[in-house]
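User: Could you write out the 3D structure of this protein bound to adenosine-5'-triphosphate? I've included everything you need below.
Assistant: Certainly. Input first, then the structure.
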Amino acid sequence: MPDELTPSPDSPRPAATPPPNPAEGPGKGEIEPILTVPPVPGAPKPNPILTVDNLARSFGGLRAVDVDHLEVERGVVTALIGPNGAGKTTLFNLLSGFDRADSGRWSFDGRAVTAPAPDQLARQGMIRTFQLTKSLAKLTVIDNVLLGAPGQAGERLWTAPFRWRWRDQERENTGRAEELLERFNLAHMRDELAGTLSGGQRKLLEVARALMANPVLIMLDEPMAGVNPALGQSLMRHITLLAHEGMSVVFIEHAMDVVTGLSDWVVVLSQGRIIAEGPPWKVIHDDDVIDAYLGRRRAGDAL
Ligand SMILES: Nc1ncnc2c1ncn2[C@@H]1O[C@H](COP(=O)(O)OP(=O)(O)OP(=O)(O)O)[C@@H](O)[C@H]1O
Ligand SMILES: [Mg+2]
């Protein structure tokens, strides 16, 4: 993975820039509320969707996650960055109920998460994707996307007699799934088995399936890894638009031009701990962040 810290001049959108028409954004006025937050680890946010306290997970003697306090702001795009092995995926696993914390507590969308189970959190609107994709190889591409649709009326016993209702819903879901396939350049693969897709295409498929659920919070683990850059940018622009419509987004990414181009806020993990938070242009110049990425650069300089 490239761990470079150089922003590219042709980033797709200036970070934290409110949409041209403020009415398009979630309560965005002259200045986004996130910009008023002090850029320090654990900073309280004006309207958090996720609040985490004292969350820890060790593997043997290794403290993979050790987060004192973290708040993720609602309706903005937050990038979670950090060197390889920093604990980013483990943090996602804990928050989304795919792994169990040794200790800690957190709340999602105003509710304490007491017994985190992935399906229950998904029903509440927290959807995550995986660094290593999880598409079902023996199902078609369209069926993989349709699996992401929330509570199908046809699955509920009491609606079964009203076939016309779930037929309508099925039609609606299929239309939406096709739209997402179109957007992610997968429409021509609609009826192929997902197993025939390339690694990059499978990543796009997984994001499409996640979006089918209309998440309140979408957590993407390296959504662009292996995806061709143009398509990757288009995918993230789509996600940014959804954030402007009110969805909250957290994505893990290594390429700093993507981070600075797409995120409103950046959280930096190193050895399981949050070592910096802030707007992208501030964070990438932070000495602790540079040290974390480059190892003992400054200590080495002094030798
Ligand atoms: N199931 C596990 N068993 C043992 N160690 C684990 C397990 N999962 C993660 N780790 C270790 O925990 C640390 C954090 O791993 P994690 O996958 O969360 O890092 P990451 O920040 O996502 O890294 P990358 O950028 O390479 O994906 C690493 O040292 C990793 O080897
Ligand atoms: Mg990871």
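Residues 59, 62, 64, 82, 84-90, 131 surround adenosine-5'-triphosphate (ligand 1) (CB under 6 Å).
User: Perfect, thank you.
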